Structure formats: C-alpha cells, structure tokens
Amino acid sequence: MSRPRAQFRALFSAAALIVAAPLAACHAEPDDAVTAKPAPAKKPPAAANTPPPGPCTAKEDPLLTAPFVDNFDRADLGVSDWSSTSYGAYSIRNGRVCTAKPRNHPLWLKRKLPANVRVEFDAIPLTNNGDIKAELFGDGCGFDTTGNEYTSTAYVAVLGAHNNTEHWLARLYEHGPEARITRLIAGGDSIADSKLVQGTTYKFELVRTDGKEVRFLVNGTLVHAMPDAQPLAGEGHDHFAFDGWDAQVCFDKLTVTPL
Fold first, then answer.
1. Quick check: 97 and 250 in contact, CB under 8 A?
2. Which distant-in-sequence residues (6+ apart) come within 8 Å of 27 by Cβ?
3. Among 25, 35, 85, 176, which residue carries the largest CB count within 10 Å?
4. Helix (H/G/I), strand (E/B), else coil: 68
5. Is residue 7's pLDDT more than 50?
6. Does 30 have pLDDT greater than 90?
7. What was the pLDDT predicted at 54?
8. Is 79 left (phi over 0), alpha (psi -120 to 50) or beta?
9. What is the predicted pLDDT for the residue at 189?
10. Radius of gyration of the chain from Cα atoms?
11. Nearest Cα residue to 68 out of 18, 121, 106
C-alpha cells in the first residue's frame, strides 16, 4: 500500500508546481509596468479657516458722497470696490454675489459711510436654512477669529438665523443682551415673524436717519429697530458688509445711499 501513496504524493507535487509557475509570472514587482493608483488629492481647507488676503486698508477707502450701486453684472468681484476676509467664500454667479460658507468672514464694501445711510439689496436663500446676514457700521476689516460666538465691529442683521428659527438685530456681540430676537413660525402673518422660503427674493433695507437708531426692514416691513445711546459711527464703524455662516445665500441689486 505504501507505493501507490508515494506515487500519489509525487503526482500532486508536480501538479502544484505547474499551477504555481504561471501565477508567479503574473505577480507585479515594483519595477513592472503595473502602477498603483495615485492617492486622491486632499481637499483644500474651508474658506473660513484661511487667513485674509493681506492687510486691511479700510482707513484709506473713499468716503461715500453719492449713491453706490452694484448689480454684480460681471464675471468676478474685482478688488476696487470689495474686500473679502476669506478666500473663496464669495463669488459672482449668474449676476449675483453668492456665499460659500463664509462663517462670519464678511465681504466689506470699500467705502466709508456717513453717520446716516440707507442700504438696500435683494437676498435669496438657496436652502431652507435661511441665515441671510449683513453688517452695518463695521470697521471694514473684522472677521471671526475663533469660529465660536462672533463679536463683530458692527450692527449685525440676520434674517432666518439659527437654521431659520430667528430674526436678529445685534450690536457687536451677536449673543449679547442688547440683541433683538424674534422667534419664527412657518407661514406667519408677516415676514417679521415668518421662516424664510428657499429660492424667495427678500428685499432688505438697513437704515439710520437720526444718527442713533438702526432699523432693519424686509419687503417694507419693520423686522427690528435698535435705538443706541452710544451709536456706532466714525472711524472703525463706517463700513457695510455681506456676511453669513454655512447656508448658501445670493445677494443682488445693492444700493447704498448717504443721507
């Protein structure tokens, strides 16, 4: 019985060698023509985490003495009228300036404002998260440096803040005791207490006529008013900006009128 078993083992070993030979020939060594797929490119950091594109020169901006109008009918923002505090957070698309997660890195208009001014523009939320934000009477340079609770240099107006649950008008610190806040409902009687609707155009107006009280209106309806015994005005409080957090928004038809 031992001879057949030995013959079987010899035959099995020979068959194994025959199968292994072509498999070894197919193995790709480092010098072979077969190459590994390249590693996927790393995504660039979020725009809000990128430092601003140079020192602020807001003190050198010209004084607004006549209405400034910008309909954004061009390919890019340019640098003569606007100063962005974040790379890539603002761009012109289809004749409107749109946001890409600015995260409290404003787009400042390079004009010094007088104490009394009217700012009007259209704003369109591209999601149901709302969060349309603008700043009035800021320093023309400031942005969020912590990524936490934002302290601006301006009055901050927000329509549909906190995922479309509130309308705000704040002075400097967004969550300070002076902030005017309205809780929102869906389909309310007025825009003053209604949640925003994706794709709808809202007509903003931020205005101060007496050097003291800032008013925030949308579609002609007063949303909030803030009388201020120590009004933000003069150097360091003389610029306007578009702003935002994560929700995508587009702005259009801006007019800034000295009063």
1. yes
2. none
3. 85
4. strand
5. no
6. no
7. 62
8. alpha
9. 87
10. 30
11. 121
Whether the pTM exceeds 0.85: the reply is no
Q: In CATH, what number does 47-258 get?
A: 2.60.120.560
Tell me the helices (H) and strands (E) count for the chain, helix number first.
2, 15
Burial, 160: exposed, middle or buried (Cβ in 10 Å; 0-12, 13-18, 19+)?
A: buried
DSSP assignment of 133-181 equals EEEEEE-SS---SSSSS-EEEEEEEEEEHHHHTEEEEEEEETTSTT-EE
Q: Are the CB atoms for 216 and 157 separated by under 8 Å?
A: yes
Distance of CA 76 to the CA centre of its chain: 16
Question: Is 71 in a helix, a strand, or coil?
Answer: coil
The mean pLDDT of the chain is 84
Tell me how long the chain is.
Answer: 259
The domains of the chain are located at 47-258
The predicted-structure confidence for 122-156, as pLDDT tens digits, reads as follows 999 999 999 999 999 999 999 998 887 889 999 99
